[in-house]
Amino acid sequence: MLNRNSHLEFLYFLTTPNSEILAGIMEVHEHVFEGAKLMEEELVEKENVLIFVAVDGIRVVGFKIGYKFSEDTFYSWLGGVHSDYRGKGIASELMRRQHMLIKSLGYTKVRTISRNKRREMLLLNIKHGFDVLEAFTSEKGTHKIVMEKEL
């Protein structure tokens, strides 16, 4: 769905990005997750964090963040695309790029946790080869689905 006329640029960071990119990620996070704030400290404390962003001009329109889960498994933690940019294949492209890079870094599996409430992401994960490992209810009463994919 991404086409040659697209002005999107895809970037990645192996550390916390500059303040402009970080502010853009936080803005998209807040938009996607109904006002929930992402704190910079949450990114800094993750081991081997990897951050992908989709940028339109100077505007961050999507992101995908993950980190080392174990020696062979990468945890794809957070991601989202601003509603103004959905349906253009951005989330798929961010995922494709993340999986290519983490495979080149030596990871053999990628794990994520999704929610039934976020059906678009659940379906995207299944479309990209994730298998459901288990489902559980969090301490907050939220139903969650653990998924994993062999790279």
From TrEMBL:
One of the entry's Gene Ontology molecular-function terms is: acyltransferase activity, transferring groups other than amino-acyl groups
Per its UniProt entry, which superkingdom is the organism in? Bacteria
Which Pfam family would be a valid example here? Acetyltransf_7
* Record bears the keyword Transferase: yes
Identify the residues that the record assigns to the N-acetyltransferase domain, covering every copy.
12-151
PROSITE patterns, alphabetically?
GNAT
Transferase is among the record's keywords: yes
**What's the name of the protein?**
N-acetyltransferase
Lineage of producing organism: Bacteria, Bacillati, Bacillota, Bacilli, Bacillales
